[in-house]
Amino acid sequence: IIAFLESYSRTKILERNLQESEGRYRTVIENASDMILLLNREGKILDANNTALSLLHLKNKKEIMGKSFPEMLTDTSDFPFNMDSYWEETVRKTKLGEPHIHSFQLHALSSDGRKIELDVALNVMEVENVQVLIVFGRDVSEQNRLNREQEELREELAHAQRLESVGQLAGGVAHDF
Known about the structure:
single chain; alpha+beta; elongated
């Protein structure tokens, strides 16, 4: 009887620890600053965190669950995103014991039709003996816009410097003449 009670007590402690661990996990995932999605083999969204909903301008998880994530994406050349090639390579490398994460930039359409530039990382993991794709994404639209503006300003500065050099050369030639 004592052994049974000790066993029961340990089981209850383990259950409580598991619930606490699951609660901490859920809190971290739901409050992460990056979009986190779980996708099945077909690319249907199984779960999404609050940042994903916010990023895609959705009000609740019902609006995103079951949607095809690849259909929401295009690559940076506006071609449809082909998830199959990434899935196969990631599964193959994971089976070989090589952790493999794909990182690249994609465009996604939010519910209001706005194009969002995403920096995305994909990886395969197992949940209840089923392989799922975990997607981490970060909105880099503003960062990319600032980089493009900075590049335009560099080009304008270089152009102005070339014009200044030509002006100085012309002034020198005129002075020598």
